[in-house]
Amino acid sequence: MNAKIKPLSNYVLIEPVGLKQQTESGIFLPDASDKDRPEQGKVVAVGPGKTDKSGQAQNMSVKTGDIVLFTKYGPHEIKIDGKEYLIAREDDVLAIIE
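Request: output the structure for the sequence above.
Response:
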């Protein structure tokens, strides 16, 4: 990624990760065959976190490099340097995949 993107507040920049699907006969289906939006991705950048009433930033639960599971239609699609990314609120991230 050439452009330097720093999400604000509790936003997370995610690179979608497509899951390879295999049919029962062993044929791998390309990502393009799946019309649904991805629900899994790699965290590329993280904002500083929401600020509480005292003005302190709350720690984010995710960090750069985490593989996360997120809500299907929560994140917004954006394009940076010709590559597609998703930007989501931390609340849209459901789990970290270990």
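The chain has one domain: 11-97.
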